[in-house]
Amino acid sequence: MLKPAAQNTAAKQRIAKSRGGRPTRTAALQRDLRLLDVATRLFMERGFDATTIDAVAEEARVSKLTVYSRYTDKRGLFEAALRREIERWMAPLSRGVEERRNNPANGSLESWFVGIGRQVQEIGTTPEVTAIMRTLSFQAANFPELARLAHEEGWGRAVATLARLFDHLSEQGLVRVSDSMVAAETFLNIVVGPLTRLTMFGIPIDEKNRERQLRLAVKLFLTGIRPD
């Protein structure tokens, strides 16, 4: 059994080895997060073509070899950034839907749809989302699989998440829809579609009318799906 002094020496040697050799798991995780943060920001600020692996590596304070060891090429790096952003965008919607399913008596149906509509609008019109969507639009011809990924994992998942809620509400007799997926996509198109087009073209949103239009859209939508 090692004496305390010998144990301290051995511990110091292990620490020195981790510092001089491969990074610890925590350090590697922090490095990877920093790398993805930097890449995401540069893709949003500069677009896909103007963002280089050299620039990402320099700002993230890692070697190019590290970048290529984690992501095969720039396309792979962009895909990783896109997937992470989609998860961030989806989280509030998923929480909102689950909250409504678990607490059906928490507010009227109309007020809930106004709330979730407001949330979807805020997410869909942020500068970050707009920048990513513009980049995807420019690169869709070169990387159609990335555009498909954004549609299926972003828009498609949002539709499916809301569709599950419509199924739940239909079972409770609160709404009547023949196709929950169509109902969910229609709701999202009504609520966020026009605003997304404005932000994509750089046209300012009239904030004074946004809330009024949202409430009217929800009222019209619910009128069409409420039981007679």
Automatic annotation (TrEMBL):
UniProt signal peptide: none
GO terms of molecular function: DNA-binding transcription factor activity; transcription cis-regulatory region binding
Native source organism of the sequence: Rhodopseudomonas palustris (strain DX-1)
Ranges of compositional bias, category Polar residues: 1-11
PROSITE patterns in the cross-refs: HTH_TETR_2
Name of this protein: Regulatory protein TetR
The organism's place on the tree of life at top rank: Bacteria
Region (Disordered): 1-24
Assigned keywords, A-Z: DNA-binding, Transcription, Transcription regulation
DNA-binding annotation, residue ranges on this chain: 52-71
